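Hi C.,

You asked whether I'd gotten around to modeling the 354-residue construct. I have! Everything is below, sequence then structure, no commentary in between.
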Amino acid sequence: MGSLVGWGRLVVFVGSVLLVGLHASVSSAQEVLKVSGIYGGVWADSIRNAILKPFEAKFGVKLEIEEGISAVTLAKLRQQKGSPALDVVWMDRIVSDNAIVEDLVDRVDPARIPNLKDVVSQAVQKDKNGDIRAITTGFWAAGLAYNKKEIKTPPVSWLDLWKPEFRGKVALYSPDNAIGLPILVTIAELKGGGTQNIDPGFKAVQELAKQGALFFGGSPAGANLLVTGEAAVATLASSQVWDLQSKGHPIEYVVPKEGAVAGDMRVHIVKGTKRKELAEKLVDFAVSAEAQRALATMLLVGPVNSKVSLPPDVAAKMPWGPGGSVQTLRLVDPYVILERRTAWVERWNKEIVK
């Protein structure tokens, strides 16, 4: 009898081990989420430390993370359409708009994202049918940066770029950056045109080009032009200016009186993901007050959760400037730009870059 009991216990023990092992394997498969498009450098570090690592710790999830710019992320989504290897991706607004139009990212059910109730309306990105396809996780904006050792009278308006004293000292974003065309639209508007009449914008930028203006894609490249003295005034993201200041460079940031031109970093659930429930949890956490406060503090981007309060030193460096808000940013209609992007880029390459 003792022998039979021993064998029984052994069978139960082995069975329990097998069940535990099987459960662990299934659980592990369910708790791995593939995330891509978190940019690079300080942007990637901030997203990791403010959102991704805390999410892993809170939910016991393993994230497989890929860094990369938005254009590369979009290319991956196109290649993987119908059978995606990615689950959640970050992309900038113009690239995000392409992904939405091409149906590469899934619809977001507000009922599955509890923190969405606290998110400002400008951060909820919908398709033309009114379905939510992306949520902004931080607003950034481009204003004017200048070297205070070279420039004694700071610029206060976008139109100051054409002042005689700045001649040959100006650098601007090109359409290679997501903010480039919104800035072109802003210039056109201030010169009497707009999205329906972009000619004044091109004419004004042509004038700067003839005066020796420089054009750049990535914000680090623009920052380098200011640091090396190749430019004294530049269109630049506020967060890039704060980074320069932290390194001891004499660069100041100005929110033009007409408003800084906004960009945003958006999170998306990839269409066709087999881990949608877990992806929804990550999106929900990304827009929580906890994650938004941390991201705003680390990266100095504007938070989207209305319940976030920031210390004075951080609030002073928000992209909309002291006393501003998301309401004071210039948000150019992304779909208007998307419809005209190819033609405008071709025109830029013919008329500006020669």
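If it helps when you're writing up: The radius of gyration is 24 Å.

Thanks,
B.
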